[in-house]
Write a structure and sequence with these properties.
Rossmann fold, 13 helices, Dehydroquinate synthase-like, alpha domain, three-stranded mixed β-sheet, four-stranded parallel β-sheet, 45% helix
Length: 356
């Protein structure tokens, strides 16, 4: 076992660590200090469970542990799936000192966290993310929830985990498409907050695609540092935290219009970031720089042919809308993002009409 980095999300008495390392799931890292009671429910999915569940269970010996495998895919990120977790908790008679452990990608983490927020008005949970996207983004910050037919993540709650354990070895079994989708969120951090990191990604993208251990550890660490800083400053997205949604207004609309699970979240966000950069009015060279990096990561740089009207309808349910006014995360420059409703609607129409 090697703990490479430990990062703190500073939220007063609800602060928690993000532990990044290799072989942490192989019985090396002690989760006991983060588990208050004797009962645990490990929630995973049908793909991840067979790979990593046994190793996690070995580290939880001495406790009453049950497991639940959810179906795999964004299309199952629903209230019905979340209720299946509540059904297991109640059927097993688990009490308020129960800890839920989310073992999987962003869908598993979001649903499990939401169930933990709801069960008995809130029980502890731990994030053990196994995809790059979950490791650098969704496992950190306490956003939990499920999708609704009207929009992505419309039903949920803020509920912080007790800790996040990131075992970089899990990326060895991550399919190539999922790996690339996770890189979209990594690129996002450079685009919105760290120009030096963006340049590092340009120099090291091939190493990341080849799953170089050192490059991945650095990318995960820096992404988590940037997210932890923003979340510590604005836990419930009253202001600055909204910059983490760069590309997501467009991306969520693409996911909804295409049907959840057709485009992966990271793929939709990748195209959405290019669209947001174009709407920002950046110099063409800066837009091209971001587009080239996203293309190098093997990700889409344009929306599918959805149409302006359908995209506008889908964006109308975006959580940043205020008084009926769309707001976007825009780039004042590469490395500096703002949330604004000050955009040229004619440019928006052109961006929404562009398709792959």
């Amino acid at each position: 076992m090697t703990v490479l980095h430990q990062i703190s999300v500073d939220l007063g008495d609800r602060s928690y660590p993000i532990v990044i390392g290799s072989e942490l799931l192989s019985g090396g890292f002690d989760l006991s200090p983060f588990i208050a009671g004797a009962n645990c429910l490990v929630v995973t999915n049908e793909t991840v469970g067979p790979l990593y569940e046994a190793a996690l269970l070995d580290s939880l010996c001495g406790r009453q542990v049950e497991t639940l495998a959810l179906p795999d895919g964004e299309q199952f990120k629903t209230l019905d799936t979340m209720v299946s977790i509540l059904d297991r908790l109640t059927a097993s008679g688990f009490s308020r000192d129960t800890t839920l452990i989310a073992l999987g990608g962003g869908v598993v983490g979001d649903i499990t966290g939401f169930a933990a927020a709801c069960y008995m008005r809130g029980v502890d949970f731990i994030q053990v993310p196994t995809t790059l996207l979950a490791q650098v983004d969704s496992s950190v910050g306490g956003k939990t929830g499920v999708n609704h037919a009207a929009g992505k993540n419309l039903v949920g709650a803020f509920h912080q985990p007790r800790m996040v354990m990131i075992d970089t070895n899990t990326l060895s079994t991550l399919p190539e498409r999922q790996m690339k989708a996770g890189l979209a969120e990594v690129i996002k951090y450079g685009a919105i907050a760290d120009l030096e990191f963006l340049a590092w990604l340009e120099d090291n993208m091939q190493a990341l695609l080849e799953k170089d251990a050192g490059a991945l550890a650095h990318a995960i660490r820096r992404s988590c540092e940037l997210k932890a800083e923003v979340v510590s400053d604005d836990e419930r997205e009253a202001g600055r935290r909204a910059i983490l949604n760069f590309g997501h207004t467009f991306g969520h609309a693409i996911e909804r219009c295409q049907g959840y699970g057709d485009w992966l979240h990271g793929e939709a966000v990748a195209a959405g970031m290019v669209m947001a950069a174009e709407l920002s009015g950046l110099p063409s060279g800066d837009v091209d720089r971001l587009r080239t990096l996203i293309e190098t990561a093997g990700l889409p740089v344009a929306s599918p042919d959805i149409g302006e009207e359908a995209m506008r309808d889908a964006m109308g349910m975006d959580k940043k809308v205020r008084s009926g006014q769309l707001r976007f995360v825009l780039l004042e420059s590469l490395g500096h993002a703002v949330v604004s409703s000050d955009y040229d609607d004619a440019v928006l129409s052109r961006v929404l009409s562009s398709a792959a």
